[in-house]
User: Fold these one by one.
Assistant:
Number 1:
Amino acid sequence: MVGKLIAVLFGLFLAFGAATSADAAEPDLTLEATIEADSLEPYVGEMVLLTLRGDYDAFITLERFEGIELANFTWLQLGRDVWSKSRKNGREYTTVERKLALYPQKPGTLAIGPFRHRLTLDDGSGRRSETIVASNALDLTVKPKPATDGGWWLPAKNVTIDDHWDMDTARLADGATATRTVTITAVGQTAAALPPPPKVVAPWLIAFIAPEIRTTEITRDGPVGTVQWQWRMRPSRSEPGRLPAYHIPWFDTQSREMRDLVMKSRRFAYATITAPEGSAARTRLENWLLPLALGLLLPVGAALHRRRPLPAREILARLRRWLPERDALAMRAARIRGDVRAYRRIAAKRLSRHGHAPEQELAAIDAALFRGAPVQVMDLHSLDRRLREVFHRAEAANEIDAWQRGRGIAARPRG
């Protein structure tokens, strides 16, 4: 009787040990996928955060996530996997967490997952086994991107702009070049998603843009994209002008509203110019005193010689042949001094007065002044000879027109 009881107890002990071994041979392995977005139905291009969390009651010797395939999404991993230890129900678990930023590329109901984590386990006695843990699958409803001004679509958690000028463009020193640096930062977007630089074009402005700089910082909450644009600008004319504002629309994913980023308007003028924009500069005394005196004296002199007075246009045209132009003397002085900036400023004003484009005729000087070439190597003598020919042709054409108008002859079109 005692022997049978011992045999029964021994059998129960073996059965309990076998059950315990079976439990030890089947560890608790779970992998869960969750998504986080600022809306239950995000727009195309809006960031969606995906978290993969694995809780493993086992000793892991090797691991790797199998190739992640996400059709209809672009994505990037937000840093390295984070491993930690935790306890649940009195047992120690190994936890791994991987984060991805997903950007849906088309509207509709899109499938996400399942994801697979391949593990190599050690049972504690040196025996190893390989297993694959699969996560749950998810569905995400995505809305088409709305129509926007200009067609640009930029969804982000936040977008900021830093618009910096290195000088006051409303009071530029003669010949000065202003540098504008614009930095745009978007939280929740990569640098590639930020817009291209605006075209800074105005008939009165010379502008050069440096190669843009785009960078993306990876954080656990998503990427932060930055783009930097830099221009060097200078007025090509002495008259003041205004650079218009530039607007960049973007979608605030947290408030679910469209917002506007603005590169503000900017006034350009030389400090020596005091006339307001859109009005003519005040005429200086010497500009009208000499023509007035000549207009009074020359007709009197002609009458004394019993000659019919000439028209005022013809009188002025003859005077221009006899008297050197004041700007011509100033250009000559600047050339002798080797002052390239002063020479360029006076030549641009004189070219504009004669109906020529300063940017075309003075391209060599502009390239030297704006692109860092040494201005000492500029051949002002050969440039001055060419400009004198341009001015001579313009003055000759003006004299012919004046002579024809004085005799009532219609001027023939040039060219």
Note: Residues 285-406 form one domain.
Number 2:
Amino acid sequence: MAELSSFDPTQQYDVLVVGGGNAALCAAIAARREGASVLVLEGAPKFYRGGNTRHTRNIRCAHDSATETLTGPYSEEELFEDLLRVTGGKTDEPLAKHMIRESKEVLVWLTEQGVRYQPSLGGTLTLGRTNAFFLGGGRAMLNALYRTAEELGIDVMYDAPVTALEIDNGMFVSATMTHGGASHQVRARTLVAAAGGFESNIEWLKEYWGEAAENFLIRGTPHNRGTVLKMLLNAGVQETGDPTQCHAVAIDARAPKYDGGIITRLDCVVFGVVVNKNAVRFYDEGEDIWPKRYAIWGRLVAQQPDQIAYIIFDASSLKLFMPSLFPPITAPTIRELAGKLELDPTVLEKTIGDFNAGVRPGTFNHADLDDCRTEGVTPPKSHWARKIEAAPFYAYPVRPGITFTYLGVRVNLEARMLMQDGTPAANMFAAGEIMAGNVLTKGYAAGIGMTIGSVSGRMAGRGAAKNARN
């Protein structure tokens, strides 16, 4: 791995990859395997390398049959239908279908780069057929990619944020990066931007969310501030995606401001009810299967007073989901639980009482759209509705946990950036979060961010290497 002592400012690389996560490494490896010389600039220190990939667990890819770790087939058509469902039909259809087709090769390709899989985890995600889980999680997956990069002779520099890009009419010329307190110019024939979104830039988030963004918790890296994204947009690259849309889940309100990761996420919404600070419910907790709805709850909580909410359930549900890092708050009665949560006890008792009165009997099955529902309750609970009556009672306080933003650069089927006039950039490609908004306009399906990163990384890396040769 390159350090400053080995950095030669006169060298012109074939491919410069800006970023250090899954998408960046897939691009770097793909380009290197095509014969290109590659430099990766990771803005974070080595210990924190990899962006949000460090916190992931699985990847959602199309596949034709069961494997040692996947329980059955998951067709291109079904994956596309799932994408349409979570985005409300709003996606770049040709690009989405192309990426889904490419995803069929990714599981094997990642294995060839040293990544290993394990059987899926249990709980509410029920992903054993659709998603491949990384053995050791995202950090192990990332370490495997870095080992392969090193073996292939890819140069990587840490603590090397890019502070400026020289772009001339859609052609990348050079980048300026800082390392050890000094600035250095890096020249390359092609650029792959894989530096993430702007989720850790609270000031930028406030432009769209107002003061509510102060109460957002950032699940992943504090280094994704959107610096490269903003430079590209200012240089005439066409933007895509809604700046207010993001992957945002409900996470434990006691989590740290940054880098709390996946262990602060809460998957127990379907087992209880969610109330705001006024002790009233505000959305259907059983709208759809959890992997297709968990990423809407951050936005829902963000729209509540003071961006705080509480998941409330009883003893019958305590062991049905993967818990948070923090223990639930518990009390022998709903009234006492309200006191611990600083909620109006009378209102909370009425909210729970009205909900219980509306529950209709059915056969409970959290892995499917069961027939346990409510009647005469607003909002309804469409599935998995059971009375909250078995003491003791439990609650988790939750806040919006932002994973990544959907504003990005527009790309074509080669992952090549498009300029504002619609023409392809001469030598600039994008991969991962920085271009995810082409496919994800809103919503989320578990594991699809890793799919976009891996697929677009391979596409961008191959395209950049070919471009450099020409």
Note: The CA atoms of residues 160 and 179 lie 5 Å apart.
Number 3:
Amino acid sequence: MLVMAAIPLVLAGCTGNPLERVGRKAPPPPKLAITPAQDSRNLPTSVEIGTAVTGGKVADVVVTDPKGTRVDGAMRADGTSWMPSKALANKQTYTAQVTAKNDAGKAVTQKTTFSTMDKPAKRTVTNLNLQSDQTYGVALPVTVAFDSAIPKDARAGIQRRLLVSTDPPQPGVWAWDETGKQVSYRAPDFWRPGTTVTVRAALDGVPMGGDSFGDTDRAGTAKIGNRVFLEIDNATKQMSVFKDDVLVKKIPVSMGKSSTPTSSGKMVIMEKHESTVFDTTGSPDPYVVTVANAQRLTWGGEFIHAAPWSVGDQGYANVSHGCTNVSDENAEWLMNTTRIGDLVTIKGTEVTLDQGNGWTAWNVSWDQFVKGSALPVPADLKPASPAPGGPANAPGGPANGGPPAAEKPSASPTPSSSSGGR
């Protein structure tokens, strides 16, 4: 009984803050600052709840709409802000309550109330090239295209709203092309076969420069297939097809004649059509022709396609308007072998590929590619050394030897037709 009675006395002596028993003061509550400021008005519907914490970390964020309904969302991985899972509604008032805690359990909470802007009069149309439930080639760059050029001062804000995750992890970087109408994401090397790629372009309500805002959120989850590469050599007029790094077929080709040459460079198959119409009405050399088994390589109208009219020249001479001609049999075999996202490398022609004329993320070195990022490049993805002087394939164009305007009827990252050179 004496021993049992003593126990509560010992336990009572152990209560209180352990730091105070050894002469150390307990840490103060964390310091917390949040945005937007109280009573902010006319904010974009893409607004995020900014959080800056010293001496702790964010423990909870609760955002509610005018009816008191909780808004879904999550903290960014870097802890800088809370991002809603979809754009907020226009012309509504929201309340955000943020709680931060430290290791000692001390907490601080702040609230802010803000209102979103009315529906914008102008929207920028966006396009995401990755669609759910599809299988793509290992060279697929994830691209977001815009129907008008994005000013440089708006690109960082847009880039922060482009989210990519991969399984297994293969981190990459977003980079803008020179036109400002397309931003592409790739890793330093091609995707591993079997990778799952999930993308969210959370652009609804995001400022796009001037008085325009993003049109909608877009998302997709897709798989990466096996390795298929096409190499076309103008010197031999032959296409070599590699499947999982093994040469499986050689195909004779005819490419662009000297007045309408095919571009040399690293391209990616963007579209596949069992049948399509090439219409160059209005060009110096107009024609309308239906072609079978056509695979688009550039926005400017370069395709690989069946061309029974040039079979006698395939393997010997270039007679096309810029496309790569193959026989009916070989075109059908290619359609059954390739995927959107497969790499096509063309070499030895009179002109080089314009950056941005297609999915051209692989047409430059990694060092050069990351220079197009509007945000700081993560340390583990920065080039190991300064970039060597210039891109692997210098841009070309009509002014310096590129394909003439007749071969580029639709030089836009947002395709509107299948116009091409035959």
Note: The first strand starts at residue 31 and ends at 35.
Number 4:
Amino acid sequence: MATQHLLPYIAVAAVSSPLEIGANRAPQTANDLAQVLEMAGCEVLCLGSIGTPDQAIAAGRKAAEAHVDAVVFTPVSWFEDYLVLQFLEECAVSFLFWPLPGMETGALCGTQQITCYLKQLGHPYQAVFGDTQDVKCLQKSQHFLRAAVLKNRLRRARIGFAGHRVPGMTETAPNEFLLKKAIGPIIMPLDLPILLEKAQQKPDAEALQRWQEVVSKAGSCQVSKEDGVYAMKVYTALYDMIREYGLDAVTVGCYPHLMGKVCMSIALLADQGIPFACEGDVNGAVAQLILTLLTGTPTHNTDWLDPLEDDTVIFSHCGSGSFSLAEKQADIRLTPVRLMDQGVCAIFPARPGPVTLLNLMPAPDRYQLAVIEGEAVHAEMVFPGNPVRVRFSQPLSDVMNWVFDEGLGHHWMIGYSHVGEEIRRWADIVGKGVQLLTL
């Protein structure tokens, strides 16, 4: 099972027109920028310099054959726009332009010229301006390049869906055609009876050993050995299906009969980079996948609960969070699930830190993605689940009015760290199929 993380694979090329001042530094500049981006965490294919249509075509074919996520062009002088356009016909990925300063080179003019053209074509691009050591340029470039690889990862993603979405939660129903067209993932139906049958067939001894390992990592346990062993059997059966179908995320229609039966699977799979949404929410699973890819860490699947007097708000679900999301390991309690009083879930207050919250749902003609950043602060066990207490920079009344006015759904996926900028860049790249909603 592949680890979920974003490592942009990019091509770098310097563009110029031979007559122009600065054109002679094209090969060295391409190498220099390639090294900068490698040090910043990218895998780089250096294409050298492009100064003729034939060179543009050859470089485009090389980049396409390598299946790069994006191309970084560094203009070192003015250049003909058709160089990039010829490249585009061979390799139609996202483009980043990094023109170098130079009063007589015309590099900035050439960049404005091509971005003008690409804007009319509707082709995704980003531009920065500064030397190759400019920290702000590098940061902006990283946001765009991570967004580009996010787009490619989502277009290849498979979301496993077992059971059905919860009756009365219409917002969680996916539009499969629109999801594929706008964002990229396909849905792989999983036969729930077969999943449960496979779980029953798993060896007791293996499940017991895994359960004992889980108990050893918790602060306390108030569930029976039988319930714990069954939860581990379900986890193992799900893990087998994930490997069989090559799934990137999953969701199971757990409410109400499977409550407590799959919660530990959610926690354990999250630690392996496989997000798992509750209640058959395919849209939520996709949102969790976005956050997992961008943050590299497990995420919370939550409902928006009540505000507190200090203008913070509590988010939580029944208790399916990765143990790594707990503020203190000693606070992790293994208990039967609320409402149904069955199975096993892990309840604990969530750890503090910067967070990004997403709500993804289909509209009639597009997908809409609401994004807001905040700060998770210390939370008490005010709800038997994994309460996350969030403070927003905006007044909470404004945030709540925004939620109501935009008609946002009730499932909020939470990832640690602020990744709103990458998500905004990703929405720009994917285009009109996704409406980004921000406060």
Note: The radius of gyration is 24 Å.
